[in-house]
């Protein structure tokens, strides 16, 4: 049948719909979408889920088995007390029909994970960059080592991989380009996609790390099912991944959620993240602290001891440890950082009105202690502030988001792809 879709330059456009090929493709996609969700299904159950006729469902399942996306399980016999009949055929989406790779390319390290088509992690590996400003070839080689080790950990060959998702600490536009307006961003413009495509032959999808963190949090974290969500990656620099009504916000050039101009905000002053601020403020406090004869000096001894061991510097981890052990200076530093983050979130919430803000990344596990003063500061600026929580996903949040990015591609284009199960040793759990 023909569907009139409008005119362009006075010429009527027509689209032919419901051809046998289109109908078959649509039915296969519908059944595959249901089967990906969970478990196994009989033909009757698939009929109920899709509304398709029995003959269509069985034919589609046979097509999907032939294509490699679905496998048939042993027939299910009728339950006792039910009228006898033929055992029901049982079908299951084959999560090992292929694999995806998720890669987090950070400043200090790169982490690769290998996952099946339900997102179960099968292998993981991390490699440290010797120098963030090292030549591109050297850093790409380090990434390649992480990917290869993750594949070996999963018991998989590179031919099993359908798509790779990659997260970087820079904006990414719709064409996969990286803006060259900041030197920090330019450090990630080293041809990551081209390297993986040439070495492995994979489709490679590049994404901003905070955006991927938001995808991961919406998928399986505290933000699961929350439509209006902001995820703050706040290790060394602050960056937000933003969702509105369940859709990721990119902006015109991929820079939505970048907050590099925070130096313009009173009481904030810079886009430095939690780890960077904690480290800087604690080191300053130790260097300028009062002598032992003054009140409060004893409380500074733990941080001072850490500083002596590290030749004057104090790590964020040491500050959190000291605060947990009652060091008053460390507690004061964390309070100052928490209130600063509360101001940042207040600014964001004023413009975007998220339901939930999640602190994610490597600092998330320690950041729970920041929540009371952060929430108090936030409430002083807003009558109905968003809920603020820390992510349970830890430093895996970006790699999980990269996996979700790759899975979305597979799910959207499954019938255009060729399953790669032969590249995976199925005996491995």
UniProtKB/TrEMBL annotation:
<dbReference type="InterPro" id="IPR036388">
    <property type="entry name" value="WH-like_DNA-bd_sf"/>
</dbReference>
<dbReference type="InterPro" id="IPR000600">
    <property type="entry name" value="ROK"/>
</dbReference>
<dbReference type="InterPro" id="IPR043129">
    <property type="entry name" value="ATPase_NBD"/>
</dbReference>
<dbReference type="InterPro" id="IPR036390">
    <property type="entry name" value="WH_DNA-bd_sf"/>
</dbReference>
<protein>
    <submittedName>
        <fullName>ROK family protein</fullName>
    </submittedName>
</protein>
<comment type="similarity">
    <text>Belongs to the ROK (NagC/XylR) family.</text>
</comment>
<dbReference type="Pfam" id="PF00480">
    <property type="entry name" value="ROK"/>
</dbReference>
């Amino acid at each position: 049948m023909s569907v009139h879709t409008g005119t362009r330059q006075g010429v009527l456009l027509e689209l032919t719909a419901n051809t046998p090929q289109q109908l078959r493709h649509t039915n296969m996609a519908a059944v595959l979408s249901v089967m990906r969700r969970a478990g196994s299904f009989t033909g009757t159950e698939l009929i109920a889920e899709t509304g398709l006729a029995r003959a269509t469902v069985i034919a589609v399942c046979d097509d999907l088995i032939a294509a490699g996306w679905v496998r048939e399980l042993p027939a299910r016999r009728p339950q006792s007390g039910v009228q006898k009949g033929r055992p029901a055929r049982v079908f299951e989406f084959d999560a090992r029909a292929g694999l995806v790779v998720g890669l987090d390319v950070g400043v200090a390290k790169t982490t690769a994970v290998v996952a099946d088509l339900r997102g179960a992690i099968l292998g993981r590996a991390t490699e440290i960059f010797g120098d963030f400003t090292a030549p591109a070839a050297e850093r790409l080689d380090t990434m390649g080592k992480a990917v290869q080790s993750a594949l070996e950990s999963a018991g998989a060959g590179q031919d099993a991989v359908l798509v790779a998702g990659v997260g970087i600490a820079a904006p990414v536009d719709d064409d996969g380009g990286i803006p060259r307006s900041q030197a920090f961003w330019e450090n990630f413009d080293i041809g990551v996609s081209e390297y993986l495509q040439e070495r492995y032959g994979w489709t490679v999808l590049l994404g901003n790390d905070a955006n991927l963190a938001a995808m991961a949090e919406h998928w399986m974290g505290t933000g699961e099912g929350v439509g209006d969500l902001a995820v703050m990656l706040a290790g060394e620099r602050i960056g937000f991944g933003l969702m509105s009504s369940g859709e990721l916000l990119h902006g015109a050039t991929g820079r939505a959620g970048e907050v590099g101009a925070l130096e313009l905000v009173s009481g904030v002053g810079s886009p430095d993240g939690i780890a960077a601020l904690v480290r800087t403020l604690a080191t300053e406090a130790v260097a300028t602290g009062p002598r032992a004869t003054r009140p409060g000096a004893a409380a500074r001894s733990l941080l001072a001891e850490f500083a002596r061991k590290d030749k004057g510097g104090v790590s964020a981890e040491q500050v959190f440890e000291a605060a947990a052990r009652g060091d008053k200076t460390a507690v004061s530093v964390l309070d100052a950082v928490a209130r600063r983050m509360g101001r940042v979130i207040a600014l964001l919430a004023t413009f975007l009105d998220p339901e939930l803000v999640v602190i994610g990344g490597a600092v998330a596990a320690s950041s729970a202690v920041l929540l009371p003063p952060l929430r108090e500061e936030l409430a002083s600026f807003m009558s109905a502030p968003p809920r603020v929580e820390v992510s349970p996903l830890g430093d895996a949040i970006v790699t999980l988001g990269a996996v979700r990015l790759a899975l979305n591609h597979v799910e959207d284009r499954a019938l255009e792809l060729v399953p790669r199960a032969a590249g995976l040793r199925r005996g491995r759990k």
